[in-house]
Specification:
Length: 629
């Protein structure tokens, strides 16, 4: 498609960059494209002969209009009109918890894709992964983003009308800072800042300045969620016991004073207001009503962020959103949903699609203005970030419609991301293995625990006994070959998942085969496992690691890969040890294999496929890594 642009100059730089991705050529000839800014919460794209007009509220909406025009291609005259439900909407990318900090080029590519979708917000979740001048151990060896990186990303985002908003932590979730002795004066427990200490607020001010300084946005997310042991560590030793809600009432105003002094508009997670007066730390569940004591400490000058990821009931979300409106004195909260990429190797699209549609429908009814689609890394960021793009497309289509038209969603995804929706959607089957309920509402993650467990210990064998998981993964591996061909821009994504499934096809039932052969006294079968099956599994796992190593360094900075190498190393050495143990037994040097005689119990007493969060528990029943946490 050839266009000539007649519009404001502040759109030209983004237009020229994004046009290449959309297959649009810009010159003096072709369709004359006009930009008209209006106040309506509506996007309208009109093509009449050789004239095209995009009526929009902001730059990001203009670029969605451009992608709609590209999608139409050589189509005859048309008009597309879409409502715009939210003022701000976009992804929040975790660049700390999962040990993976995306490279600047990757984030730029993500910005182009979300601009084509019409999303206008990108939040970077940083616990320690940003530069704080004068504090060399803040983010040390963790791939932190420099101030120059943040400014470069902000400038690039601004071309497309995307607001880059920093999200930091100012209370809990500070383990990767507080583990260094340089921060002993501000440590309550290994995860929580010490309320009341002057040094704490000096640090927070430096953090606020460092995170907000390189970006245009005056909004900042100050975190404050999940401070489980607030006041129960060094604070307790120094000051005695005080209820959590009193500590929140002391700490939050001091943080907000810092933020206000620097001309910033804060938002914060809301859960601590519920947890601080709950005897069970409950949040977002029946029985976790806000008490009058908690309501009294909610300040008027901070936007509350209500996060919830797993419910499929619109009435549930509406109830909780209305509770937040009440606790904030009539102001609607920010809502944070999720793509459900943090439990397993692949996004849990079945669950996240159902939850997203229910939650955002409730957000529209309550008048929510800002929506976040969280992409948490959690324990290692095994899920490929580009595999999650379809989830972001859904958020965009719900903002500019209702997101229920599957054909439109597929067309938009093809236009904005050059991907085939059916192939990305099918990635959910990696964890939706036999024994997992349809759409995986329980966030089961067999792709993780069947990959990492030691086959001689079989911590999850009882959970998959009698379930054809190996055949399941063999079938998916075959299907992924076609997905690679249909998605040339994502060959590495689907290639990685194919190697994962190749490995799982060999390893998923390996422990069961071992124990059954041993119980029968079948030395022929044990020898076959030792001489053929274990080496083949090791080879597949090495090939997976090599593909994963390359893919990691395409997406992320090198820091954090050592976490994955520790897992691969443990899993590979476990296979070597298994072969050695079998050979010792088969050659008569060991009478019994005690690890194969140990009963196989359902993991943690839970029957069937399940959700296990931490890889350390998958690798061993012993504690693998000791630290002060």
């Amino acid at each position: 498609m050839l266009i000539s642009f007649e519009g404001p100059s502040d759109l030209e730089a983004g237009l020229r960059v994004l046009a290449r991705d959309l297959g649009i050529s810009i010159g003096q000839e072709g369709t004359r494209l006009h930009s008209v800014t209006w106040d309506r919460p509506e996007l309208r794209v009109e093509l009449r002969g050789n004239e095209a007009v995009i009526n929009h509220q902001g730059k990001a909406a203009f670029f969605r209009g451009l992608s709609l025009l590209a999608e139409a291609g050589s189509e005859a005259d048309f008009t597309v009109s879409e409502p715009v439900a939210f003022r701000s909407i976009g992804p929040m990318v975790d660049v700390s918890q999962g040990d993976a900090v995306p490279t600047v080029p990757f984030v730029k590519g993500l910005l182009r894709k979300i601009a084509a979708m019409g999303l206008n917000l990108l939040m970077l979740y940083c616990e320690d992964s940003y530069e704080v001048p004068g504090l060399p151990f803040f983010g040390y060896m963790r791939g932190r983003l420099s101030s120059a990186d943040m400014k470069e990303l902000d400038d690039y985002a601004d071309m497309f009308g995307v607001e880059l908003v920093p999200c930091i932590q100012t209370l809990g979730h500070m383990y990767d800072v507080l583990k260094w002795d340089a921060f002993t004066p501000v440590r309550d427990d290994p995860h929580t800042l010490l309320v009341g200490a002057k040094e704490t607020y000096d640090l927070i001010e430096r953090m606020v300045v460092a995170a907000s300084g390189p970006v245009r946005s005056r909004r900042i997310h100050i975190g404050m969620d999940e401070a489980w042991n607030l006041g129960l560590g060094n604070y307790l030793a120094k000051n005695g016991y005080r209820p959590k809600i009193e500590l929140m009432a002391e700490h939050l105003p001091r943080v907000l004073e810092i933020v206000a002094r620097h001309g910033l508009e804060p938002m914060m997670w809301s859960d601590m207001f519920f947890r601080a007066t709950s005897p069970t730390n409950s949040y977002d569940r029946p029985g976790s009503d806000l008490t009058a004591q908690a309501r009294s400490v909610v300040p008027p000058d901070v936007d509350l962020v209500y996060w919830s990821y797993h419910n499929w009931d619109k009435a549930f979300y509406r109830e909780w959103l209305e509770r937040h409106v009440e606790m904030a004195g009539g102001r609607a909260p920010v809502f944070a949903g999720g793509i459900s990429n943090w439990r397993g190797w692949a996004p849990n699209y079945g669950m996240s699609f159902a939850a997203t549609r229910a939650a955002l429908a409730a957000c529209k009814e309550v008048g929510v203005g800002t929506v976040l689609a969280t992409l948490w890394g959690d324990d290692g960021t095994e899920c490929d970030l580009e595999a999650c793009l379809l989830g972001l497309q859904l958020y965009a289509e719900v903002c500019y419609g209702d997101g229920t038209d599957e054909e439109k969603l597929a067309r938009r995804f093809k236009t904005c991301c050059q991907g085939e929706m059916a192939d990305f959607w099918a990635l959910k089957d990696i964890d939706e293995a036999p024994g997992v309920e349809k759409d995986n509402p329980g966030s089961c993650n067999p792709s993780e625990y069947l990959l990492w467990q030691d086959p001689m210990k079989g911590l999850f064998d009882a959970n998959v006994s009698g379930v054809p998981v190996a055949a399941h993964y063999k079938k998916i591996a075959e299907e992924l070959m076609g997905a690679q061909e249909r998605n040339p821009g994502y060959r590495e994504v689907f290639g990685l998942y194919k190697k994962l499934c190749d490995t799982l096809a060999l390893k998923a039932e390996l422990g069961l085969r071992l124990r059954e052969a041993y119980a029968r006294g079948d030395r022929v079968a044990l020898a076959e496992i030792a001489e053929a099956h274990l080496p083949a599994t090791s080879d597949a796992l090495r090939q997976l690691r090599e593909a994963h190593l390359r893919r990691w360094h395409e997406l992320y900075r090198p820091f954090g890969w050592e976490v994955m190498d520790a897992r691969y190393g443990a899993a590979l050495l476990a296979l070597e040890a298994a072969r050695w143990r079998l050979e010792e037994h088969l050659e008569g040097r060991v009478d019994r294999l005690e690890e194969l005689e140990e009963p196989r119990l359902p993991f943690d007493g839970k029957e069937g496929q399940l959700s296990c969060q931490y890889v350390g528990r998958m690798l061993s029943a012993s504690r693998l890594f000791w630290d002060f946490g």
